[in-house]
Amino acid sequence: MDGLDYATRFYPKGAEIFQEGQAGRRAFLVDEGLVELDRMVRGRRAPFVRIGPGGIFGEMAVIDGGPRTATATAIEDTKVTVISERVFKYKLKVADPFLRALIRLFVANLRNSTPDGALRPPFDR
User: For residues 44 and 92, what is the distance between their CA atoms, to the nearest angstrom?
Assistant: First the structure.
């Protein structure tokens, strides 16, 4: 599939890229800058990771169609490559079936974990 559509986007320091709970139709690859992911924990925003050049974020919602699990904010002037849902799904479709299943399992496990990283008991689902 030649001609896959990738876009470059710039976010100034402090700009929100997406919000927790929103639908996700794009993933992002950091080209330059730094992005912080945070989520609501006990009524407060709790940062849990910073992603720099070469890192990807926003992929979970694209993979499984669920809502965004975090809010992403540029904490430096940041340039990203935007990976559309169409491109992402194509890449998954042509991936080795074992890797595709493994990726989906990882996403499911992350979605079923609590904000502190512990897995929820099955009865909490």
Answer: 35
